[in-house]
Records
---
Amino acid sequence: MNDKFDAWNTLKKDLHNTKKTMHIKQGEIYFMSVGQNIGYETYGKNELFLRPVLVFKKLSKYSFIGIPLTSKVKEGSYFFTFEYKKDKKSTAILSQMKSFDSKRIAYRSGHITKSDFENIKEKVASLFEITPERGGFTLLEEQRNKEYIIAHKNQFANKSNKNILLTGTAGFIGSNFVPYFLDKYPDYNLVNLDLLTYAGNLDNLTECENNPRYKFIKGDICNRELVEFIFNEYDINGVIHFAAESHVDNSIKNPGVFIETNVNGTFTLLDVAYKHWMDKPFKYKERFTGTATSVVASDTRPRFHHISTDEVYGTLNETDLFTEETPYAPNSPYSASKASSDMIVRSYQETYGLNTVITNCSNNYGPKQHDEKLIPTIIRKALAGEAIPIYGDGKNIRDWLYVLDHCKGIDLVYHTGKEANVYNIGGRNERTNLQIVDAICTILDEKVPLNSEPGIHSGLNSYKDLITFVEDRAGHDRRYAIDATKLETELGWKADENFDSGIVKTIEWYLKKYNKGTN
Ligand SMILES: NC(=O)c1ccc[n+]([C@@H]2O[C@H](COP(=O)([O-])OP(=O)(O)OC[C@H]3O[C@@H](n4cnc5c(N)ncnc54)[C@H](O)[C@@H]3O)[C@@H](O)[C@H]2O)c1
């Protein structure tokens, strides 16, 4: 235990120093302490952990008022935390709150009752504009969600259907998966839990929103109370977990949120699933695992399918392929957070016998991907006549898979994959980034000839003229390539699209999105 405390003491110092150079911004998340300097807190004798706080009001360079994202610390006890500098402005704002017991709402922290907490939140909400962003799930919103769930749960077309919780399906892959899955399995009810971060977009799911077998819930996978509520109310008996922070560049700038969502979020889902299906000393346990004399067949036990990435394996030389046995060697905060989540999934299988499968997939491309990613960026920049940025020498290799082929792989593994197994999914379509940009520009030259946009494209002979090399990404892995033999031979999966067919479909989708006619 001493080691742990020593480590924390060092971290505490570091965090304390960080605070001095911190630029606090509204809407961002910081780690706060209770009763201590920024960065750490202690509960009980041996437990130490960080607590994220959403900043909703910036008072000065070093001070803010924020809402803790993990408000419930232990049964019946809530914390309200804010930190401020005793300057005129912050004192004026806080004085408006003086109807509350200032001792209990200490400057930095306070141990307050649930009803005080709710009062304070209400008061704060009336004083400041709170824009719930990532994790800014206010009690009110949570309550509204619960009411919505209660009001709608019985409206599932068929209550005896299988009820599957999907997470993060307002994102790229999930929003391709949902329509495919709803269509293929008319006896499934799907609940989509998504926080709608910048990466989530409900416009990608308009075709499903009126489907009586589909429900959307806005919320955080890290919000244990909400996840438990959903499991209970919808009687969830399967999980396919897509939700993640997924953009490597963002993970370099802001790794904390990757750890929170990808590691803690996955842990929360696993733990709730395990407790709900296997550990509750009443009907669920019996129903999902059997009694001492009867065991539920493993293929009918509820399954937790974790969607992961080939980036957990690190980088490759020129010839090798990633197999399911390749040791993990993640290089970016994104891949490290995904690798960690894979390990936690594994531990729930090994320790508690939760029925899990993991799929590690290569780079996806296709419709509905966020504008920030490589292929949409190339198309968008080309059409706008802007420089198309390519990292380093452009020779980094990725193995590209059309998104619907990934969805079909997930479907297959979820239904027929062997428990406790990992399956790699990859298209055997290795391309350098330069080859990708080259292929896209060639197709664009044909579909949207340059002379149709004389203003912004003047002087160009090809969209390729816009290619611009920019400084390489830190920790940029050189090559990824998947060996999907296990999935192909054991489960009979095969990609339907090759890169040449998939990229044309993809470009056509983006041309429609950006309102450009095709030839
Ligand atoms: N895109 C790829 O090429 C690729 C390849 C292999 C694996 N993956 C994995 O597939 C999954 C989906 O990837 P994607 O490209 O669709 O990602 P995405 O970034 O497009 O979508 C992520 C979704 O998760 C939601 N989300 C984020 N944090 C959340 C939280 N705390 N609670 C609830 N929802 C939250 C977002 O709102 C968004 O809708 C991820 O787990 C990713 O690691 C992606």
Note: The pocket of nicotinamide-adenine-dinucleotide is lined by residues 167-168, 170-174, 193-197, 199-200, 220-222, 242-246, 261, 265, 307, 309, 338, 361, 363-364, 370 (CB under 6 Å).
---
Amino acid sequence: MPDTQPQGLPTIRTIAMPADTNPAGDIFGGWLMSQMDLAAGSVAALTARGRSATIAVEGMKFHRPVKVGDEVSLYAEIVSIGRTSMRINVEAWRRQRDSETTQKVTEATFTFVALDDEGGARPVIDQG
Ligand SMILES: CC(C)(COP(=O)(O)OP(=O)(O)OC[C@H]1O[C@@H](n2cnc3c(N)ncnc32)[C@H](O)[C@@H]1OP(=O)(O)O)[C@@H](O)C(=O)NCCC(=O)NCCS
């Protein structure tokens, strides 16, 4: 059964380039994780209306490889908001550049903490 692609616009859409490969020539998992962190960070900053930082990543799963030239779309959405933290689910989907078929490649739940000017945790102000 195919995965269901999230509705709406992705938070980030990018192209996997040769510079992002591992020594075997496939896309490096760390590159994909950084894209996911960027997407979650964008949602966190908007939700917290300011600075925030990753404190944890749970359930990171690599379902399928990403190939050079793939269009990679990152979908990030808030799952829950705590006092100072935000849990954000992120899915990455690939589309081979010459095909309309899309596949989910990774997913994880990122926890971000809203930060004050000194880098300490501060309450999240959800202005929804
Ligand atoms: C973010 C930071 C300031 C928080 O410090 P802290 O005040 O000691 O954090 P706390 O223990 O009070 O936890 C803050 C929130 O994170 C949550 N949290 C803490 N550890 C967690 C974990 N392992 N998983 C999920 N949530 C966690 C807490 O439950 C709390 O949430 P809440 O206020 O909504 O209830 C500090 O951990 C830090 O600077 N970390 C480094 C962040 C960073 O540099 N990230 C980039 C990595 S390269």
Note: The pocket of coenzyme A is lined by residues 53-56, 82-85, 111, 113, 119-121 (CB under 6 Å).
